TrEMBL record, chain A:
InterPro entries: Ribosomal_mL43, Ribosomal_mL43/mS25/NADH_DH, Thioredoxin-like_sf. Transmembrane segments: none annotated. It comes from Rhamnusium bicolor. This is Large ribosomal subunit protein mL43. The keyword Ribosomal protein applies.
Automatic annotation (TrEMBL), chain B:
GO terms for molecular function: double-stranded RNA binding. Residues 62-104 form the Large ribosomal subunit protein mL44 endonuclease domain. This is 39S ribosomal protein L44, mitochondrial. CDD domains: DSRM_MRPL44 (cd19874). Residues 162-236 form the Large ribosomal subunit protein mL44 dsRNA binding domain.
Amino acid sequence: MSNKHLFLIPGFIRTPLQNGVGRYVGQLQRVVLKFCKNNGSSRGMREFIESGLVNFANENPGVVVYLKPRRHRTAVIKAEYLNGDSQWINCRNFTQEEVLKWLILLKSQSKNATGTRIKKLWHTDHPSIQGPWTPYTFRDPELNLVEFPNDILSKPAIMERSSQDELIELFNNKKIEELESKRAE
Amino acid sequence: MSLCRQSFLLLRRSVVQNVCFRVTETRNIKRWVSPTLKELKRRRDKIGPEPEKPRSSFLEWNYEAEIYAFGKRLGEEFDKKLLKQALIQREYANMQEFKAKEQVIVPLINFQEFPVSKETLSNTFKAVVAVLKRSKDLNRAQIFVKDFVLSQMNGKDVYELWDPQNPYEYLTTLLNEKGITEIEPRLCNQSAVNTILANFQVGLYSNRKLLGIGWGENIKIAKETAALDAIQRIYKDYVPK
């Protein structure tokens, strides 16, 4: 199966707006944790909110965290990025460690990257520092002093022997052999 | 197979006739599904797309928290009151004043620009810089502008932004200031002369040292590109004070 048959948008790793050149700005703007207060599938999310959430919020003051309890619905993380993307993660039956892991992933991303296939693990705007090859790069300096028209340089660089030449050579060789045999007699 | 079906139908009919209140459920294609969905789609299309709503109209929205996180995200400490003031648009402020004076005009109240225009964004950015200057100092604001605006120039070609009309003349004046008066343009290479793909390479030399080298479809253009290259080489090691 080729990449054409995977329904993924191909792309490269990119940084928005030269982020990190001047200073680094975390691209996760806000995160909404949606959960149910008594359903078992939200248990891990509830445990995370009780024990780990304050810590997470302290560590990441640039991320606004909202809590949204709602009855009898699956726990969900909704993340919103500075570029306007939003990402939705189903957290049904997640443990609190898993919730934290996903939050850390969201924090370190710059956009919703689901459904993209990264073509390469690196990307550069300048793939060649040396520049493209031209007929003048690595030119033999000897050519600076040559005067044209020049007999040697006017010939093709690689002259292969044609089959006609080979036949002529064979014919000549045979002639010589015949001559030598006559002499021997 | 058909015979089987016939017998089945007969059997079912007899069941219906015998017990008149019984509803026979059959598993077949639900023929109402498609028309219903189509009708719903038609109505949806008729209404048109939903208007885009600003994030602040959502239930989960805390303006104070957003303002706090804004400063923390950018790594700056803003004066909260000033920042809030800076983020209010003049039109919106006027509207609020108007609303306070005459509470009758209802339709005007919801007027607020959304999605935000580029002009508003640029004005707001300037306002944020001004807030930073007031809440910290000028130096901090300068660093802020350097980090966010000037860093956008990173990796860009100088000649995309600056298009000198006579680069060779510019170069000569530039070198005269440095005390180099003699510039010698030399034709280094040429190929495909007298064809449509003619190609010349000109190098600019001064006292046997290469200043710059450039290509072009004729010698004049090649000389100018060489001058552009030379200008770039002069400023290669330039560090702003």
